[in-house]
Amino acid sequence: MEILRNMWRRKFRTFLTIFGIVIGIFAFTVMGSMALKLNKMISGGKKYVTGQITVSPKGSSYDSTGGTLPLDTINKIAKVDGVQNVAAMVSLLVTDPDPDNASVSMGQSPTIYGADNSSDFKNRNWETMDMREGKMLDKNSTDDEIVVGINIATDQKLHTGDTYKIRGRDFKVVGVVAKTMTGPDSYVFMNIKPARELLIASNPFMKSLNDSGKLKTEDVNSSVAVAWKDGADSEKVAAAIKDQFGKDVTVMSPVKMGELIDKASATFNAIILGSAMLALIVGLFSIVNTMVMSISERTKEIGIKKAIGASPSSIAWEYTLEAGFIGLVGGAIGMGLGVLAATLVNNKMAAKGAEIFLIQTNFLLGVIIFSFIVGIIAGVIPAIRASRLKVVEAIREL
Prior knowledge:
- The chain is an alpha+beta fold.
- It folds into two domains: 2-42 and 261-397, no CATH class; 59-247, no CATH class.
- Helices cover 55% and strands 14% of the residues.
- The longest helix has 44 residues, at 254-297.
- The model is unreliable at 61-65 (pLDDT under 50).
């Protein structure tokens, strides 16, 4: 009550101090939630790519449609020492980009993911996916069946049994993948044969070669996923593939891919640190200024408290806790506004399945604790100064 009374006595100054903290914590909450979402996506991608060796056409990148791998090359890769099995994959966007309506996306663009479901290949880190509805594709799935990610299902209002037209071709939805917060949320899973046909149809050059018989449909593969045998070293297997086929393919080993992803993750973690430092600096100076002025104005009051028996430690604790409480109030308001802003944006983007913020309880709890600590740190020096005031000098000053 004493702390609240002291804060209320100087309402305007307290309001300005709290407002400064609110701005910093608001930025911290919003940017932190965005970084959490991006890191969630990155960690999911890392889990997937480090569970397999990915081989793609020379000069292309992961999931690129810029080149193709012939089936003969894939069959030869399967015979490399240490390789257990392989699975050809085809990927392309669900719709071609519209240059007149380009937009910035915070996540994976809707992508067709065609896989050879007849293969026994299993990603070591991601063998199965949880389903929201229906079932995942398997060896018995037909070419007109697809499974869609939750973002696509939300955007297109799709459920099991619905028909979804992709690039002019009708497919039957047999499953909806549960939310993963990563790439699969925006995938359309289908058998590799229709994915190949769609890729060829989307590329005039490939189509002309295919129509003339110079390009076989089964030779159109965007990449191949490779599983290594138990006991084999994935890096040695990847190196062996590179040694034999390095002129024609790009080999991405689990370890190297993990390292690249870790570097990207570090960038987003720096966003959290940067916003935290901003909140810390703004909050510290605001509270220090307020507490120094408060002590200057209450010098006589401090002297009287000491004269009637208040100890230096009790004086120090009073002003430190007051500063901490200011930080706590400002932090709570800033966090609340940040959550509100993130929720409103997510709700607006939810129709497109493109939420850009991830709100986690433990993060919000950390924000509150951080705000209180900022206040405590800012109040320590003024509080020590108050506790060291001499009784006679304090009373004489005013």
